[in-house]
């Protein structure tokens, strides 16, 4: 397989972009041990960091559970093998690829591998937004547009599985206003249902978690993520939606509306933690005697949104009867 890599790299009839695509396909077929053992020293100096970045990408995308192997390749990159390709040139695809692909992978490693906390995906989204801004500042090219769309698919999925954050609204507006052709009809349908449904149901959550957005996250989420913690993010978003339309509500009613069991989820504990972490826009309390959540002032939603919410809520309940 090393010979195949050398053959691709040494083929002077192909562009660097085509070579890298072919190298990506080769690495997809390899097991984690073979990937780690691929020797870059036999390659030209300009292709050594390219192959190391491709090795890291292949491990993180196709073998996300192999943490030791991932760390090994990261250590190789940290030794400075890519230092000579930090300056991006519009006409140099190799340096462009190393700079932006490595930034993307490093942010994923920091938030989704090294420090997976489930409550800071919005911070990772902001990292991705910075990468997009850097891409756009370099000027549009056939390379940058494809990679930009790839990162946008990461942003979209991260938004859908994020816990509540006041910045979520800005991300949603960004996604809704972006009409890029990179989104399939299925993805647009998921985003629309997520946005328009009164609550994110467990069924919709399962569809989102199991859907392959073609952004490199599919195996990572299926193999490495705790689905119960991801669903806790969904609960937070649902409870915030309630707080925008109710001034007070019994916890037992929340169980019914969200269609969850108190055997599975301790909603009082979830809401209490949200209060502690200042997730609500208004001062919120729990009356333990009456088992009622007091969301504070009169709901902030305008009348049109309020009517729309309850119309969707009635329809949602009706469909369950």
TrEMBL record:
One of its GO terms (cellular component) is proteasome regulatory particle, lid subcomplex. Residues 225-310 form the PCI domain. It holds the Pfam family PCI. InterPro entries: PCI_dom (IPR000717), WH_DNA-bd_sf (IPR036390). This is PCI domain-containing protein. It comes from Candida maltosa (strain Xu316) (Yeast).
